[in-house]
Predict the 3D structure of the following.
Amino acid sequence: MAMNNIAAPFIERIRAISDLIRFTRPVGTYLVLFPTLWSLFLAGNGRPPLSLIIIFSFGSLIMRSAGCAINDFADRDFDDKVERTKERPLASGRLRVWEALLTFSVLVGIAFALALMLNRLAFYLCFVGLFLATAYPFMKRFIHLPQAFMGVAFGWGAVIAWAAVRGSIEFPALVIFFATALWATAYDTIYALQDIEEDRNIGVKSSAIFFGKQAINIVAGLYAGTIFLLLYLGVLEGLGSLYYSVLAVASATFVYQVMSVRTSNDRETAFRAFKSNVMVGAVVLAGIVSDLIFKV
């Protein structure tokens, strides 16, 4: 009994930290990871070093987790006023501020160790990525399009990955970067629709608020821009029918998202549409890898 009494607070802390970094909610990790892998496999002609695949896969998990920790620190005075976020560890009092900052610091330390395994250019680019990931949670106080800033942060991994393979930043990496920035701005605008009224009440800025009644139309335009850039990427890299086939699947998924949110603009529909972007990232990766390997 005494041992149980001692262990219980420790176990509760572990659960709270797990919730802080969204360990059991990996959607965000996948959305960070997939564009990075697009870049990694294209730069490596379909066969990048296994070591880089492991580094960037683990690094995506670590940096997304660190981003969640600093996000909850930044939003600790807002989250308890929003239905969706009121049970987060800092908002609910399950973790203290110093524990969240310590978690963030440990994760950044792990990310730094991973960065040391990359070449010099990629290593230096990681510092830009750290700045973007750390600054993003605070942007909703200062700019009307924090989702676009997040898009830049999510896309930066593709630039680092390309540099890690080639030792340089080449034009296709920038195409992936901009495609990811548009894509992430679109799906995070859909995500922001869940909290639009509460965000207005507490004075938090978002693209969903800024775009207003035109939000869904602008999301559709951002998705169209994403597909255009991915088509252009295919032309640049000489990809074939397998790649273009999966872009048709991605396009259909984007249409589904826009239509479902337009016809039923509730929290559950918006979240379901947002989550379907994981499939988009996966099928585009499958198209890239299959096309490079089989040369169809």
